[in-house]
Amino acid sequence: MELTEGLRTRHSMRAFLNKAVPQELIEQILAEAHQAPSSSNQQPWNFCVFMGKPLATLRAKLLQAHEQNRTPYDPSKGKTIPAEYVDRTRKLFKALRPCLQQLGEENRAFIETGSLRLYDAPVAILMTMHKNFPRSRFMDLGMAAQNLMLAAHGRGLGTCAIGLALLYEEVIRAELLISPEFDCALIMALGYPDESSPVNGFRAPREDLSHVVRWIGVDGKG
Ligand SMILES: Cc1cc2nc3c(=O)[nH]c(=O)nc-3n(C[C@H](O)[C@H](O)[C@H](O)COP(=O)(O)O)c2cc1C
């Protein structure tokens, strides 16, 4: 797949086929994720790949923890995010609704429990970083994560980044034996997308580019 096409067509997949992903393919994808740039070339990312029984156990424990948790999910952790960004989430959920209605699902439940089920993907990859790195170095992990998503997409695989599962980071740490020296950054669900699921045909809207770009000293702009 041509790079530009890959960049424009990648989107999150939230339904996967029950089909194993060959380990060799996962290794190729990780090798390409590992090509990401990083500050001083320190490559601060670590990938923990899990599937099969350990993945099934984690999935069950995440769902169990969520059932016991009465705290509403608050991705902004109490900080006030400017209204225009909150509005983008509202638009996302509004756009998603017709798709989920076809599945007989309700937005919040689908995203919350779906995320904790890691959308039933056959493979999950936890990205971690040593806790002594400054938080700004999560940038490096973001770049590796994007490489991973594009590498997978280029091979006909789908991904969904799952930050919500980190609500239960302690559960993840315990199940995957993550050292206290490392921070958990993101879980990536990976697998062959179920193309027949309406949710995978969904494209999240983007704001007009003019809302996020400022031009300075460019003729006719600014
Ligand atoms: C850091 C990060 C965390 C995310 N966490 C979740 C999640 O927990 N559950 C989910 O369904 N999607 C999650 N997503 C996917 C976003 O909702 C998605 O990327 C966004 O709506 C844009 O859609 P697209 O990826 O299809 O272009 C996450 C994406 C990122 C980058």
Structure description:
There is one protein chain. With 222 residues, the protein is α+β, with helices and mostly antiparallel strands. The protein has a single domain, classed as NADH Oxidase, CATH 3.40.109. It is 42% helix and 14% strand. The chain has 8 helices and 4 strands. Strands 1-2-4-3 form a 4-stranded antiparallel β-sheet, sandwiched between helices. The radius of gyration is 18 Å and the shape is globular. The mean pLDDT is 94. Flavin mononucleotide (FMN) binds next to helix 5 and strand 3.
The counted number of beta strands is: 4
* DSSP summary: helix tally: 8
How far the N terminus sits from the C terminus, by CA atoms, comes to 35 Å
> What is the class in the CATH system?
Alpha Beta
Written as H for each helix and E for each strand, in order along the chain, the element string is: HHEHHHEHEHEH
CATH topology (fold) name: NADH Oxidase
What fraction, in percent, of the residue positions are helical?
40-55%
Biggest sheet, open or closed, and with what strands and sense?
Answer: 4 strands, antiparallel
Strand arrangement, major sheet: 1-2-4-3
For the CA atoms, what is the radius of gyration? 18 Å
Specify the overall morphology.
globular
Give the helix/strand class. Answer: alpha+beta
The CATH superfamily label reads NADH Oxidase
Weakly predicted, low-confidence segments: none
